[in-house]
From TrEMBL:
Superkingdom in the source lineage: Eukaryota
Record PANTHER family: AAA+ ATPASE DOMAIN-CONTAINING PROTEIN (PTHR37096:SF1), YALI0E33429P (PTHR37096)
Transmembrane residue ranges: none
Protein's recorded name: ATPase domain-containing protein
InterPro entries, per database record: Archaeal_ATPase_domain, ATPase_dom, P-loop_NTPase
Residue ranges of every copy of the ATPase domain listed in the record: 23-240
GO molecular function: ATP binding
Species assigned in the record: Chlamydomonas eustigma
Length: 267
């Protein structure tokens, strides 16, 4: 029954699986689905050899899901925390228009930091009919520009704190959207939690020398929203086997592991 359930979730036929990059990945898919069906407990590290199909597996399964943020560090410069923050903020804000309804704006704005509120104001365009506002159009890129702009008073760019606030904001919106989508949570049921996937996560190992505080802040935040608050799943994908030692011994972060098999050379 479990394998049948995995096929139904992916909405695929046997022929489609045979032609896809996730064929013969039933064990890995079952592990991933088992993780997302339950409450978050720890960071999950997805580890496997280079070119074994990890990215194809994760992107095929997660990149199009409405309740997932998929971040591929291969497609942008993530060598510094500042570059990483800028790209991830853009990805996070891109999720907002699909989740936020107009009637929720007032409540959300009250809870946001002043700088993000300024971004919302610059990102909203109103359509007027005389003195009556008929619609709002939200521009995520304007919000990102506002969050990432230099603060003239302090002459500094927002760092990990801005990123964590954006994550928290998105998690708040997600939780409301999930409850609405599934019509509430019955007693004893586990609320489906969103998923954050960071591919090529070993890029953070390069921060260790010049940006250890940023690296530690981000990892502690991931521990907080998984193990402690159980608000989101976090999957870190890597081909660096030294990542396991670095994460557990070097940073003190506990994680569970999923090993992706090297089934054939063309994956």
């Amino acid at each position: 029954m479990r394998r049948q359930w995995v096929y139904e979730t992916l909405d695929t036929t046997t022929t489609t699986l045979l032609r896809s990059n996730i064929f013969n990945r039933i064990l890995e898919l079952e592990k991933l689905e088992s993780e997302v069906k339950g409450d978050p407990s720890q960071i999950l590290v997805v580890l496997g050899p280079r070119s074994c199909g990890k990215t194809a597996l994760m992107s095929s399964h997660f990149s199009k899901r409405w309740d997932t943020v998929y971040i591929n560090c291969r497609v942008f410069d993530a060598t510094t925390p500042q570059y990483f923050v800028k790209e991830v903020l853009t990805v996070l804000m891109d999720k907002m228009p699909t989740l936020i309804e107009e009637k929720d704006w007032e409540q959300l704005i009250r809870s946001l930091p002043t700088k993000i509120v300024a971004g919302l104001a610059s990102g909203l365009k109103s359509t007027m009919n005389g003195a009556e506002m008929t619609s709002w159009t939200f521009s995520p890129i304007e919000l990102v520009k506002s969050i990432m702009s230099v603060d003239p008073a302090k002459n500094e760019e927002p760092g990990m704190n801005a990123l964590m606030k954006a994550f928290q904001f998105l998690l708040d919106v997600w939780e409301e959207a999930i409850i609405k989508k599934y019509g509430g949570i019955a007693p004893g049921e586990i609320m489906r939690r969103p998923v954050i996937v960071i591919d090529e996560a070993n890029v953070m190992m390069g921060w260790n020398k010049n940006y250890p505080e940023d690296m530690g802040t981000l990892l502690r935040f991931f521990v907080s929203i998984t193990k402690e608050q159980k608000r989101s799943h976090v999957f870190l994908v890597t081909s660096e086997y030294g990542y396991q030692t670095w994460l557990s011994a070097g940073t003190g972060v506990a994680a569970t592991w999923l090993y992706v098999r090297d089934l054939c050379s063309h994956e």
